[in-house]
Structures are given as C-alpha cells and as structure tokens.
C-alpha cells in the first residue's frame, strides 16, 4: 500500500534505483542528431525509497560510481562502477545518513576536506539537518560515520548543493528549507576543513522552497545562489556580495511562466551558448519545464520564462547536458507520474529553444525522481 509521508511530496512505494544507459545516434546530415537510450537497468539501493542521486568517482578507480539516499531507511548507498563492464554497477554498500526520522531526500558529492577524495553530503529533511560523510583515506570509496549539522530550521531542508561561495578554496554547503522558505549557507572551516560553521539563513521571499543551485550568474567570479519556491512559484536569485564574499543580498524573484505549475526541480546551465548560466525548472503540477535565460544586457537577471511540455506527467527534476553530442545543452526531465524521462533537444538554428520532448520509459511503477 502506498503511504504519503508529507503533503508536499509525491506518493512513494518501495522501489529500486533505476538507471538509464546512454546511446548516441546520428539522424543524418540534414537533421539534428538524435538521442537514444539502452534498455533500463535496475539496481537495488539497499534500502527503502531511494530519492536523491549523485554520480562521481568515489573510490578513485577512474570510473563513475552511483550514490543515492534511501529516504525512509535513512541510508546512503554507494554502488561502485564496474571495472570490467563500464556503465554497470555493483551491489550497494550502505551507511547511516545521520537522520532518524523520514525524508532524507538529497545527496551531493564533493571533496569537502581537501584530501582529493569525494565526500558525501546529505539532507535529513525532517530533522532540519545535513550530514557529512567523509571518504576514508585508508579505504577510498568507503565512508566514516555521519557528522550532523543544523541548517537553522527545525524541519525542511529538501535539497543540498556544494560550492565555494566565499572564495577560500573550500566547498561550502547550501540547503533549501521547504517549510521555512529559506536558504541556509554553512561555510567550511578554514582551520579544520571538512567541518562546518553555524548556518546563515536568508529568506527566499516565498514559501515551499524546493530547489537550490550554485553558480556564477552575473560573471563576477563569485558563486551566486538560486532557489525555487514551490508554493509561490518563483525562482529567486541571490547575488554573492562583492564587499563580503560568501554573503548574499536580497533575492530577485522571477516567475516560472505557468501560474499553477508548482515548480519542484531546478538546475543551471548555459543553454544558448552565450557564456552565461541560465535556469531550468521542472513544474510538478503541470506537464512542463520552464527555461529562464540570463540577460545579455544585465547578466545575473533573468528573462521571462519559456515553457515546454515535459512529454509526461508530474515532472519533478530536470537536468542540463549535451545528450546528442552536437555541442549544445539539452534538457532531460523525470516524469514520475508517467514513469518516463523526457528529452528536449536544443535547436541547432535557435540555441536556447527546444524541440518537443521525446520520452523514454523507465519501467512500470518505477516513479523516477532524481536525475543526473
């Protein structure tokens, strides 16, 4: 029986982590390159309700590994990339995420202590905390016990992003709190890298903050923060302050183009090739994705959103990458309501605009959520 864990999250059941293998095919000289995927390969996540997903070489063997977070069993799972069959993965090793109540929803990879190995940072949504699991020097690809840090809100950090926001060469933590409508920044310690200070909290100006991303939107060399508000349907841009790097000004809010869409997923990427980061959102309650281009005249401000069909129902996450090898950034969106991934190819003649979605099944009952 399905169980609803929170009114702001999709319904979940116990399902394995699913991955798609990528194949590229050229449609012909007069056509844009097509994209195709190998049949779905399913892997157990070693726990209940895998939600967040990250990809990186955690054991240093030169092959990408999968890391997911099991939201109800509060476990981080690491699936090593195969040394003999690239693109396939071994069984999971699991680690306690540090949460003790439901909805551990997001995971990110980054070298937070500067030892050259990727560490894990995860959100414990119902605890109002994030956990840091350091990669072990004695056994790369395995992780020590979680160290837990408050995000400054009792509940609600749904997503996490890593980046050096104050320019000291160390990765900091950014989280978005759904319940509080806020952005929390935890700076990495200068004296003990891999540990984090008290959170600094910024209001997004909205409510139901469901996404966060870090990137230099205005081209000043500092990472800015972008958040997404599910209830008030806004993208908020926080510019990093030149006078005090690592602190942020009052956010500028931008609509996502569909009044009833309730955006849930957020990502950044240069979709029109002008060297500036643009914003894409997955709009959960309408079958659309929105693209907000960065302004050429005033970098760091966003133009009005353009919306595209996601090709399915309940699009929940969106990713930007060149999927067909033509040098342009395409969109991929996970449609959890229809068990599909939609791919929207970037136009060769009008970069930053997208063709109709082509959909690929992830398998009946898989309910795809995270996407990388």
Give short descriptive properties of this protein.
single chain, 4-stranded antiparallel beta sheet, 372 residues, globular, mainly beta, Lipocalin, 28 strands
Explain what the structure shows:
With 372 residues, this protein is mainly β. The protein has a domain at 12-38 and 264-372: Beta Barrel (Lipocalin). It is built from no helices and 28 strands. The chain has strands spanning 17-19, 22-25, 34-37, 41-43, 50-56, 65-70, 75-79, 93-96, 107-110, 119-124, 129-133, 147-150, 157-163, 172-177, 182-186, 200-203, 209-215, 224-229, 234-238, 252-255, 263-269, 278-283, 288-292, 306-309, 315-321, 330-335, 340-344, 358-361. The strands form eight sheets. The protein has a four-stranded antiparallel sheet with strand order 5-6-7-8, with no helix packed on it. It has a four-stranded antiparallel sheet with strand order 9-10-11-12, with no helix packed on it. 50% of the residues are buried.
SSE string: EEEEEEEEEEEEEEEEEEEEEEEEEEEE
Please report the number of helical segments.
0
Q: So, CATH architecture of the domain at 12-38 and 264-372?
A: Beta Barrel
Mean pLDDT: 89
Structural class given helices, strands, pairing?
mainly beta
Instruction: Tally the beta strands.
Output: 28
The helical percent reads under 10%
Given the C-alpha coordinates, what overall shape results? globular
Unreliable spans = 1-31
Distance linking N and C termini: 29 Å
CATH topology-level name of the domain at 12-38 and 264-372: Lipocalin
- Major beta sheet, specifics? 4 strands, antiparallel
Q: What is the subunit organization of this protein?
A: single chain
Question: Rounded to an integer, what's the Rg over CA atoms?
Answer: 19 Å
Strand content: 35-45%
> What is the spatial order of strands in the main beta sheet?
5-6-7-8
- State the name of the first-level CATH class of the domain at 12-38 and 264-372: Mainly Beta
